[in-house]
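Figure caption, in words: inputs first, then the predicted bound structure.
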Amino acid sequence: MRHLLGTPQLSRDEAIQILDTAAQMAATQEREIRKLPTLRGKTVVNLFFEDSTRTRISFEAAAKRLSADVINFAAKGSSVSKGESLKDTALTLQAMGADAVVIRHWASGAAQQLAEAGWMHGHVVNAGDGTHQHPTQALLDAFTARRHLVADPDGKGLDGLKVGIVGDILHSRVARSNVSLLTTLGAEVVFVAPPTLVPVGIEGWPVTVHHALDEAIEAHELDALMMLRVQRERMTGGGSAFFPSPEEYTRLFGLDADRMGRLPEHAIIMHPGPMNRGLEISAEAADSPRSVIVEQVANGVAVRMAVLYLLLAGEESAE
Ligand code: CP
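Bound structure (phosphoric acid mono(formamide)ester present):
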């Protein structure tokens, strides 16, 4: 694996290798071995053109726990605000000796452009590009689901599991990344969304689609229910107006205690965060014992350690 740009590029074996490596990383953290020497001498640059809490901080924690040097770059406060291009930003980072660049960008395809344009030699990890892909989010989701729902998970996929993904599919790179990864790992995916928040061409995706959450809960024995954030900041064009109203959305698609009670007893509740509490998920559901939302965040560090380790360990440094 040279770069991690999206989940469609991952084979089943590669995905399982990342999950198994993440399990080893998680075990070191659980044994309170806070730092491994593996990436000493490597430099990881976090290049964030869009806001982030979880992804940025967990990539930084992951790189530091592997003893890499970390440079954090946020577009706000940088020369990007003076009009500097992605190319010139990349050339600058290359000159500083970046072995890997973790990029979040508002433009779909930005990570791929950085990887393929030849502006820099380092590995590129997509930390979320527009509405396109967020591969490490899907990997940490799969890791979390596997830990809860698969007995003796090492070496295994998610065969036979059924995962519901609910809400703003249209704007969701998390949904796109999850569909590819979950199906590669053998799970079945059920989408639940209003028709206005479903992408054009959904008929070609390997998913079943419902337009009300009650209907999906009734029709499927879901093992996991992943609630998506309603991304109001991306709803600027006429074609992506937020419809139905927030109240109607919560009534038809929100997860509350009553709906949660109608899921199979073993089913887990997931959310990539940040959450709109009271819109797509009630506080009662988010904070319930069935919610693994905080655990997803913790697992994100182990998964990102695994990705950086698999890309960078055993290579010469860029400097
Ligand atoms: N889930 C996720 O990507 O969260 P952040 O935007 O806070 O990184």
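The two ends are 21 Å apart (CA to CA).
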